[in-house]
Amino acid sequence: MTRKILRSIPILSDLFRRIRDALIIFSPAKLSVDGFLYVGNREVLLGNYEPEIKGLLHKLSSEFSSFINVGANHGYYLCLSTKMGFKNVVGVEPVKSNFRVAKRNLKLNKFESVKIMNSACGDPADGSVVVFGSGSGASTREGWGGAKSRIKSRVEVIGLDSLVSTKSEPCIFVIDVEGYEGKVLDGSVQTLARECDLWLVEISFYENSPDGKMNPEALRTFKHFTRSGFSTYAWVPDLRQIKIVDPKDLEEFASIFHMFLFVKRLNENEKILNLIDVVHI
Q1: The domain spanning residue 167 has which CATH number?
Q2: How many structural domains is the chain composed of?
């Protein structure tokens, strides 16, 4: 109840966020159960944070050599993937306070090979974008998640195509961008044309939308992948192949799933699909 009240009053919400961000950046690092030092979410330290993604990375670490995290937050997946042995690890995080924590976590572990940028991934033609709020719920959509915050910043927009070569090794992409999903893919035309990658995208439909309507980036995201030849899998609580063509197709999954996998060349990727226990509808 107290948190709900804080979120509803902009001045209190912003004060709470600034204090929280300051406490995180200056808090002492602790050793996580995954074997790296970390500042941030307690569930990360305990190994309980998004266990499905953690398990997926563990299963596929021998099949992929590169990892890119768009919406890297405090750098958990950058640290985890590096610890697991991924060779080329890149993170993009638009929120300055999150970026600073991520940089500190990488420095604490001497993960010097990891690249992280304080930018937003999208269409470079946009030049820049305004990000509202702070922390894990910051978004380019004002009021996302019900937060009434006056904190905002403008950051450079870079294309994912600028980070990935057409000849790069097979890559796992983890995208968590709070309502900006389709925009990320607008700047990923060449990357989506690659045949060897696995994409994991977290998509919110209604629950965080400031107007209570379907997130407009949701359908655009599925269409991007379909046009580029990907097969789509809804993921968590189970993994099942789906087909999204129009808005009504989204309704069936909107209240059940929020994580989705996209993969090409199903026959050649049968081993990968078996590793993640596909359940076909």
Answers
A1: 3.40.50.150
A2: 1
The answer on pLDDT for 247 being more than 70 is yes
Q: Is the pTM of this model over 0.85?
A: yes
Most confident of 86-100, 132-146, 157-171: 86-100
| Owning domain of residue 135 | 2-280
CA distances from 105 to 77, 131, 267 (A): 11, 23, 39
Distances (CA, A) of 50 to 56, 90, 107, 261: 10, 19, 23, 15
Cis peptide before 94 (omega within 30 of 0): no
Summarised one tens digit per residue, pLDDT across range 178-193 is 889 999 999 999 999 9
Dump the DSSP string for 41-54.
Answer: -HHHHHT-SSHHHH
CB 102 within 8 A of CB 116: yes
User: Using an 8 Å Cβ cutoff, are 79 and 38 in contact?
Assistant: yes
Residue 117, amino acid:
M
Report phi then psi at 165, rounded to 5.
-85, 150
User: Which residue matches tokens 């997926």?
Assistant: 56
Region for 40 from its dihedrals, namely left if φ exceeds 0, alpha if ψ lies in -120 to 50, beta otherwise: left
